[in-house]
């Protein structure tokens, strides 16, 4: 292998500094599968890792960032994979405790590698990326709790972000009526309604309770929430009897105050979504669904921009400032 480029992040004087550096194969960590990376994407977690050394995402800098990748196997010590196989890696320690996907080559444990399912290209897999996988896991969790389109509308918070937008498009594909919540309502209504299929777009003020109480008017059969934080009790209070919330994020904060009443008087369920350590067998099934019934017909509409490794520092700042909507695709391998 010739020298290759990757985005290197260092903690210098309590500030993350990123540079595109040249590496050799021997610089890569241990793993059974060597992959030539074609695409990656920018997630909120990447933004944290690339801008805030105190975020807790990266415990030990320096690090090659990037929590997901798609590409082609170059070498494999595991018989499950052969040179030339197209594969996906998301979650586990990728880009957090193990060199990640913002790199022209990556070497990872075979147990992390998912074969690219029929019906997806490597590019499409990274339009989904970790954000899309989290959205798919959220939708799947609602279905496992018995939520069906006939039961009522589904609310999606953080709708202009990657997870929220993907969830809207997936739910629409499955026949659900979706209401989207976004602080960027004024700017994103056309994108969310005409592009992704939301029935209505609401500002967070329109879903917050004027008077805080544990139970309120029942508005939604289910909620996909990648935001978290203090809004959570208001949302739980407005779920239908037997409703369910799939919670996957903490951009709004990690703490909230609530009572047991929605759970014991309305039988609502709060399901946590962990895309990092989701069991491998479930991961295979879910990527299969993302290539079929969960694949939005308008998948490309979710791409806000396509960038290179050199553009990543600006993208990190943009996502942390809340100025990014949809997905930022990283074209790692040029000429494809």
UniProtKB/TrEMBL annotation:
InterPro entries per the UniProt record, alphabetical: Acrylyl-CoA_reductase_AcuI, ADH-like_C, ADH-like_N, ER, GroES-like_sf, NAD(P)-bd_dom_sf, Zn-ADH-like_protein
Residues covered by the Enoyl reductase (ER) domain: 11-330
Pfam family, one: ADH_N
Record-level Gene Ontology MF annotations: acryloyl-CoA reductase (NADPH) activity
SUPFAM superfamilies: GroES-like (SSF50129), NAD(P)-binding Rossmann-fold domains (SSF51735)
CDD domains named among the record's database cross-references: MDR_yhdh_yhfp
Protein name: Enoylreductase
